[in-house]
């Protein structure tokens, strides 16, 4: 059968043809020069979103294709970066600009389509699932770029085809096969500031024969770190606009916490004798939180950004092998193997040790009155010796996490076709095994018991050394007098950073070795899948062949993550957490129909429908059925209308159900705060707060260091606890799309599509947030939300809080995707190619409770909303390329619309608060706040290419060529600094070299 061609068909066929064969000169034997192309019969192919192979690849659902040629003509070289720059992709689940992130997923890179969460985007490799973590996240950093032939992005739900998680969309990474020859690539780049060096080298080779092929590729990639101190907007807690504001009082200078009668919190004068309490001055607590001095003071404080990563480093090594073998003319054997070893690192400032909040026992511990280094203890002549609390940020030893992972992925398939009469059926049986092991080493957290011993009783021995213990515990024949507590080294936490001796931490390696232990956590996940599929045509209808596909899949997921024993017991200052271990099995069957009703008729060049349904049976929660309906109508050859309706679901993950939980120093906004909380303007909220807070009329939220918070969304001074919930049920979703594709014959090479989309997710599994819990309790006056936290009886701050995943509320998003492609070949001026994708989000709202009176939070246009990262209203990417002879140029523009955030302070900084009245009449009390509106941002990319006569390509370029810097964002979206974590952090210049053999 030779299918009829149309302008619309030709445009889409060309895009896929480029993706399934190699660009000229890449060494693939299957490539065909444009000048020698002849009319041929088109093979039936399978496009992401359907299991039915068809000649016609125009689908009812929008699919974006990124070809090998697209990848090689840009400066972004990792799969994660390439996908992150798609306009339909939202904020990353774990940003490399957020080094404070903890847990098993640190170091990975995850894709969140529509900004609905990475666990709601399904990642496939050659149509099969990528392995998951216990949190259900799929790490695309494991896929080497050299192995990628093309990427298909289905911007629609597809649970009826692929099962759980395909709610926001599906990313299908198709790897290279049938490669002939060899190609080597080298890439090097760095920021214009001289940091963030990126090195990538890869090599691919393959051969094809009469009955099969073998393709093998290796890749090495290394990206160096960038420190926050090396950019002005991230060098200070609130950027270079307020360089001395909001520094932390839990500092490298050390603080002794004395009773108010003895002077309260005090700091040793620089260079003074630590023994005399008169040499200690009152702690300077001015962080700029009051009108008296909005600039704040750096005295007695630390700027933690000086030791923190702005962009975390990454290094990976990958091996990919693909093999095909035709057993006979009807059966083919296919196998893929992938191995990736990845190392990452994240660094944050030394730990803010507060003895009164250290360890698993509430109240922590105190420095003993019998410590040699206690200036108000028994050893230094103080009239009323006493135990004391203390603070000391261990500036000498920054906290460094070094997560590594090793992934083995192996898939095999037998596939073929057979005829029944004149009808062709395709079949395949598949096996997939994916194993991912993770190991995390942490250094820089203190052993609480050892810190207690180091500040416990100690004395000066006869050798003039301060040792842990007491003189009435004399040395024995087995214990040296200098180690009454074996190995213990006495600590003077009041000696500041930079001062050597007197029991201080600087230059004192024995003390550092005693206090700091290397912590080791480990984990492993396994995915095992057996599947079988059968597709073909069973009847002929007026519009063509009735296509059908059926299949079965058995999938088993199991995983564990075991924190270090010190973390499990809470004896380390790292976030405490219990072990996670569990698994589940699911059996699934599906059926799909493609129903061509009409063809080649007036106003019905094509009219077809598709129906699919999938039954899933889980051994955890039970079963579910999800279906999908789609249509295509082509009234004329150049115009297509299409639409879909799909049901979807997301099953609870291993961590959701079986997670051991962990401590977390959450960022939150207390609605009872009388400055930036709802209590500031709402008398009813103030009255509700008075139930639990004695000083409700003057109450201020406390942040790290137990000092007044300088702004909303501040970090708790005591750890909260996040746990699992084995009663969770699946999320359910409904998604709809309606669009049109136009390829006018009078403008050859132009292809335009516009699609409306809407997704609603119910029974959302949300990581309940402290902000939301407190808002529900005090703003919504929901008593069921007031039982999982307590407040300090005197000062009123939240001193304990436990939150879990819950099924609550919904999330609904709606918008439009506009895609435009235009190819203009010319005889005299070369070939031009324009690709432009835009996503316009009309609505993204979330409701995280079951209270019918609670309005949802709005995320569109916000940098952050309480507990969530906001959604850009518009993201748009355009690429214009020109190629002529041996030369080529690509120019790209990445546009992000403006955002708004809570004002830093409407009172203190009115010039940074252009809409203070926004708080009045806002339908969501949680968002009733004064806001600052910030403008849009565009980043421009440029690349020059030259095809060398020795069969090589040389390219130079720059991402963010104009060195554009985004605005200061104090709410820190996708970051731990006052900047947008999705934005470029400087001009990145690079060079590439490709040699073909």
What does this protein look like?
The chain has 997 residues and is mostly beta strands. The chain contains 10 helices and 51 strands. The protein has a 22-stranded antiparallel beta barrel. A 5-stranded mixed β-sheet has the order 1-4-5-2-3. Strand 43 (864-865) and strand 44 (868-869) form a beta hairpin.
Helix and strand topology:
Layout: H1 7-20, E1 63-67, H2 68-72, H3 79-84, E2 121-125, E3 128-129, E4 148-154, H4 159-162, E5 169-175, E6 181-191, E7 198-208, E8 212-223, E9 226-227, E10 255-257, E11 265-268, E12 280-282, E13 309-311, E14 314-326, E15 331-344, E16 346-348, E17 352-354, E18 389-393, E19 399-420, E20 423-443, H5 448-454, E21 458-460, E22 466-468, H6 509-515, E23 519-541, E24 544-562, H7 565-569, E25 580-601, E26 604-618, E27 622-636, E28 639-650, H8 654-658, E29 662-664, E30 667-668, H9 683-689, E31 702-703, E32 707-708, E33 714-715, E34 720-723, E35 731-742, E36 750-762, E37 765-767, H10 770-778, E38 789-791, E39 798-807, E40 810-825, E41 831-847, E42 857-858, E43 864-865, E44 868-869, E45 874-884, E46 887-896, E47 899-902, E48 931-934, E49 937-948, E50 952-959, E51 988-996
Parallel strand pairs: 2-5, 34-39
Antiparallel strand pairs: 1-4, 2-3, 4-5, 6-7, 6-51, 7-8, 8-14, 9-13, 10-11, 10-18, 11-12, 14-15, 15-19, 16-19, 17-18, 19-20, 20-23, 21-22, 23-24, 24-25, 25-26, 26-27, 27-28, 28-35, 29-34, 30-33, 31-32, 35-36, 36-40, 37-39, 38-39, 40-41, 41-42, 41-45, 43-44, 45-46, 46-49, 47-48, 49-50, 50-51
């Amino acid at each position: 059968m030779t299918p009829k061609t149309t302008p619309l068909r030709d445009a889409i066929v060309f895009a896929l043809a480029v993706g399934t064969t190699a660009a000229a000169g890449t060494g693939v034997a299957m490539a065909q020069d444009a000048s020698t192309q002849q009319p041929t019969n088109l093979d039936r192919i399978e496009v992401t979103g359907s299991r039915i192979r068809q000649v016609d690849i125009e689908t009812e659902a929008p699919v974006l294709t990124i070809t090998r040629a697209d990848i090689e003509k840009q400066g972004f070289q990792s799969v994660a970066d390439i996908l992150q720059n798609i306009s339909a992709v939202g904020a990353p689940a774990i940003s490399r600009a957020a080094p404070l992130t903890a847990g098993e997923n640190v170091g990975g890179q995850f894709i969140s389509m529509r900004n609905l969460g990475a666990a709601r985007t399904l990642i496939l490799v050659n149509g099969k699932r990528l392995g998951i973590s216990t949190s259900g996240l799929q790490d695309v950093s494991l896929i080497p770029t050299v192995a990628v032939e093309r990427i298909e992005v289905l911007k629609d739900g597809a649970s009826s085809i692929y099962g759980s998680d395909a709610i926001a969309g599906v990313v299908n990474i198709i790897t290279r096969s049938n490669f002939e020859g060899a190609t080597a690539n080298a890439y090097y780049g760095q920021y214009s500031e001289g940091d963030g060096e990126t090195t990538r080298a890869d090599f691919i080779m393959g051969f094809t024969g009469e009955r099969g092929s073998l393709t093998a590729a290796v890749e090495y990639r290394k990206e160096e770190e960038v420190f926050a101190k090396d950019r002005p907007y991230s060098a200070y807690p609130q950027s270079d606009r307020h360089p001395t504001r909001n520094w932390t009082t839990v500092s490298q200078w050390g603080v002794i916490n004395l009773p108010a009668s003895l002077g309260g919190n005090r700091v040793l004068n620089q260079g003074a004798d630590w023994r005399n309490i008169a040499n200690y001055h009152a702690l300077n607590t001015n962080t700029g939180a009051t009108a008296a001095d909005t600039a704040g003071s750096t005295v007695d404080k630390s700027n933690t950004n000086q030791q923190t990563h702005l962009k975390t480093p990454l290094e990976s090594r990958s091996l990919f092998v693909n093999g095909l073998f035709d057993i006979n003319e009807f059966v083919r054997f296919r196998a893929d193997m992938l191995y990736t070893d990845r190392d990452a690192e994240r660094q944050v400032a030394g730990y803010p040790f507060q003895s009164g909040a250290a360890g698993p026992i509430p109240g922590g511990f105190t420095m003993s009155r019998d410590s040699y280094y206690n200036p108000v203890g028994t050893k230094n002549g103080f009239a009323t010796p006493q135990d004391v609390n203390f603070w000391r940020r261990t500036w000498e030893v920054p906290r460094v996490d070094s997560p590594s992972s090793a992934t083995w992925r192996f898939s095999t398939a037998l596939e073929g076709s057979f005829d029944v009469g004149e009808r062709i059926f395709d079949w395949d049986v598949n096996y997939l095994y994916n194993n991912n092991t993770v190991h995390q080493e942490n250094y820089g957290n203190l052993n609480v018991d050892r810190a207690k011993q180091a500040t416990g009783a100690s004395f000066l021995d006869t050798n003039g050394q301060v040792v842990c213990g007491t003189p009435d515990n004399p040395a024995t024949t087995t214990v040296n007098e200098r180690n009454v507590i074996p190995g213990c080294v006495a600590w003077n936490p009041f000696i500041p950073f930079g001062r050597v001796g007197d029991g201080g931490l600087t230059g004192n390696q024995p003390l550092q070795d005693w206090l700091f232990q290397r912590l080791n956590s480990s984990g492993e996940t396994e995915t095992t899948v057996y599947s079988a599929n059968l597709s073909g045509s069973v009847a002929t209808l007026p519009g063509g062949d009735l296509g059908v596909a059926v299949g079965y899949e058995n999938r088993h997921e199991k995983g564990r993550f075991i924190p270090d024993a010190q973390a499990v017991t809470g004896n380390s200052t790292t976030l405490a957490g219990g072990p996670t271990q569990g698994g589940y099995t699911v059996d699934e069957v599906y059926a799909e129909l493609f129903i061509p009703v009409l063809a080649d008729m007036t106003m019905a060049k094509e009219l077809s429908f598709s129906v699919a349904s999938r039954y899933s049976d889980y051994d955890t929660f039970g079963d579910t059925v999800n279906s999908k309906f789609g249509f295509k109508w082509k009234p004329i050859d150049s115009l297509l209308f299409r639409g879909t309706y799909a049901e979807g679901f997301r099953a609870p993950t291993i961590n959701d159900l079986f997670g051991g939980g962990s401590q977390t120093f959450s960022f939150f906004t207390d609605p009872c705060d009388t400055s930036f909380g709802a209590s500031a303007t709402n008398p009813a909220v103030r009255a509700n707060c008075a139930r639990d807070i004695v000083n409700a009329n003057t109450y201020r939220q406390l942040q790290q260091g137990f000092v007044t918070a300088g702004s909303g969304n501040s970090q708790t001074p005591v750890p909260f606890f996040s746990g699992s919930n084995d009663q969770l049920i699946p999320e359910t979703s409904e998604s709809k799309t309606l669009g049109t594709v136009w390829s006018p014959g009078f403008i050859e090479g132009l292809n335009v599509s516009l699609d409306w989309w809407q997704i609603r997710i119910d029974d959302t599994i949300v990581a309940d947030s402290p902000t939301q819990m407190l808002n529900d309790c005090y703003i919504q006056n929901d008593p069921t939300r007031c039982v999982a936290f307590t407040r300090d009886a005197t000062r009123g701050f939240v001193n304990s809080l436990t939150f879990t995943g819950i099924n609550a509320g919904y999330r609904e998003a709606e918008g439009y995707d506009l895609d435009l492609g235009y190819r203009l070949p010319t005889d005299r001026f070369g070939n031009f190619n324009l690709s432009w994708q835009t996503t316009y989000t009309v609505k993204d709202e979330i409701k995280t409770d079951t209270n019918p009176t609670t309005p949802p939070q709005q995320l569109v246009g916000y940098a952050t909303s309480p507990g969530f990262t906001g959604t850009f209203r518009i993201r748009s990417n355009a690429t214009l390329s020109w190629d002529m002879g041996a030369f080529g140029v690509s120019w790209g523009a990445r546009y992000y619309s403006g955002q708004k955030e809570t004002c830093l302070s409407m009172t203190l900084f009115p010039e940074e608060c252009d809409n203070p009245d926004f708080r009045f009449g806002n339908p969501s009390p949680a968002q009733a706040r004064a806001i600052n509106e910030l403008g849009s941002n565009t980043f421009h990319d440029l690349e020059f290419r030259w095809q060398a006569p020795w069969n090589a390509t040389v390219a130079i370029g720059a991402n963010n060529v104009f060195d554009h810097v985004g605005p200061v964002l104090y709410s820190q979206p996708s970051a731990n600094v006052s900047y947008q974590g999705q934005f470029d952090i400087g001009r990145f210049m690079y060079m590439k070299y490709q040699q073909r053999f």
